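=== RUN LOG ===
request id: a7f3
mode: sequence -> structure
chains: 1
length: 178
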Amino acid sequence: MSPRAALPLHLEYTLLGLLRQKPQYGYDILQNWDKNLGIIWKVKPGRLYAALNKLEQGGLVSARLESGENAPARKVFALTPQGEAAFSRWLRSPVPSPREFRQEWFAKFFFFPELSQEERSAVYAGQIKAAQSWLKAQDELNLTGSAFEGQVRRFRQMQIQNILKFLTDTQNNQITRS
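=== RESULT ===
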């Protein structure tokens, strides 16, 4: 398995961010997700619990069983120092590709209130630079010139241009917002 494949995906990083707030039961995490992040994407309970188990096995999350008086024991998940460091790196790094931008950017944006103004500005600057490199890579593609390739290329260019416009517009709003 490559080192990249061993790293958590943005779903797992987002879970780390939710656990940063406080230790939680899986059910509570799911409720929090649906309430706050459901507008970005829906997560099925099975996927959420699989991701929590993966994070636990990777040492990014710890879990302890807590028994209830009239209920079966439940796992309480908490962020480890390694999980905190991984989340912090992810939050401050640019989304790696336009394909992942919608979900991953807004997942990161949800946690922006935890960053200082300078940190938010740095995240925006890094993401704008990444998007500019995506656009440059599209411009440098050596396509055969078929109508199909032209349409695909134009779509990708426009998509990235819109991401850049969105970032610039929201960066200005973010910087002036108190």
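=== NOTES ===
The CA atoms of residues 1 and 7 lie 10 Å apart.
The chain has two domains: 1-92, 95-178.
=== END ===
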